[in-house]
Amino acid sequence: MSVRLLLVGGGRMGEALLGGMLAAGRPPEELAVAEVYAPTRARLAEQYPGVRIVEAPIAAEGVVLATKPDGIADAAEACVAAGAQRLLSVAAGVTTDAIGTAVPVVRAMPNTPALVGAGVTAIAAGSSATEADLDWAEDVLKAVGVVVRVKESQLDAVTGVSGSGPAYVFLVAEALSDAGVLAGLPRELANTLAFQTLLGSSQLLVQSGDGPAELRAAVTSPGGTTAAGTRELERGGVRSAFLEAVMAATERSKELGRA
Ligand SMILES: NC(=O)C1=CN([C@@H]2O[C@H](COP(=O)(O)OP(=O)(O)OC[C@H]3O[C@@H](n4cnc5c(N)ncnc54)[C@H](O)[C@@H]3O)[C@@H](O)[C@H]2O)C=CC1
Ligand SMILES: O=C(O)[C@@H]1CCC=N1
Fold first, then answer.
1. Which residues cross the membrane (predicted)?
2. Does one domain contain both 141 and 54?
3. How many domains would you assign to the chain?
4. pLDDT at position 189
5. What is the tens place of the pLDDT at every residue in 133-167?
6. Substitution candidate for ligand 2 out of 156, 164, 254 with most atoms within 8 A of CB
């Protein structure tokens, strides 16, 4: 009997999607994971009871391909040979043309906050994928966060912003906490202040409808502490560092697609 959804690759992204879908209430019996690495299979089996954990692809109505970019085309072929009806690839850079299987392919770029239901995923249809395939992909992914539809040509830039984005935010979290310690606070307190500030600021940004410049102005009293701190961030080139980081990640995504 074929499974509803097979995840191929139970690594960091595959597990974020798996954990997020289960937390959102998807029944474990509908899900399977194909993972080549035995210790990972053992860990997943223990952590996610009810989910079928296998070594190689099995027949599935739909498949999420979450192996490394250079293994995606082979994994796709193996899934189609096993009876997959449609594929959703989350690999950075690899185009749907390069995957080029006999079944429809949707390409997506999710991010790891999917694990806590707060991901954002952009999806794009390959040439043989229909609106119904995009609806299917959106249905799978909306359980773990916001889903947006883009042109496939935009996915490298999406990767630079939101696929890799959590790593930039975690770096900011580390730096803000380290700065608190430098200013004399105990680590645990600095972590609480830094992490909750990131969470609260993100919620305010998304929920208030105000733009970041407006919200930043509301924190910045004339001649006050924030203006003094912001001047140092600008002096350190933080804005330009973000521009360069996203451009470098976008370019790297394109390179992965050419490899
Ligand atoms: N980690 C992230 O934040 C994101 C990753 N991605 C994409 O997700 C994919 C996976 O990335 P990660 O999870 O970070 O890598 P990872 O290395 O943590 O996971 C890959 C997993 O696939 C397994 N694997 C390799 N070949 C396989 C095969 N033929 N069949 C079954 N399992 C196989 C590996 O043993 C490993 O557990 C990549 O293509 C990446 O571009 C996309 C968005 C975000
Ligand atoms: O670093 C990477 O290549 C993957 C794709 C986006 C996030 N992680």
1. none
2. yes
3. 2
4. 98
5. 999 999 999 999 999 999 999 999 999 999 999 99
6. 164
Q: Assess if residue 160 is contained within a domain.
A: no
- Whether ligand 1 lies within 6 angstroms of the CB of 117 is answered as no
Query: Percentage of residues in the chain with pLDDT exceeding 70?
Result: 100
Q: Which residue has the tokens 């097979």?
A: 6
For tokens 């330009």, the residue is 240
Report yes or no: 189 and 197 within 8 Å, Cβ to Cβ. no
Distance 74 CA to ligand 1 centre (A): 13
Instruction: Evaluate whether ipTM surpasses 0.90.
Output: yes
In single-letter form, the type of residue at position 139 comes to: D
E-strand ranges in 165-219 read none
Domain boundary among 104, 131, 155: 155
Residue 222 within any structural domain of the chain: yes
Other C-beta atoms within 10 Å of 98: how many? 19
pTM of this structure: 0.96
Any atom of ligand 2 within 6 Å of the Cβ of 89? no
Q: Could you list the residue range(s) of the whole structural domain that residue 93 is in?
A: 3-155
**Shared domain check, 134 and 169:** no
Question: Are 135 and 214 part of one and the same domain?
Answer: no
- Indicate which atom in ligand 2 lies nearest the CA of residue 12: 8
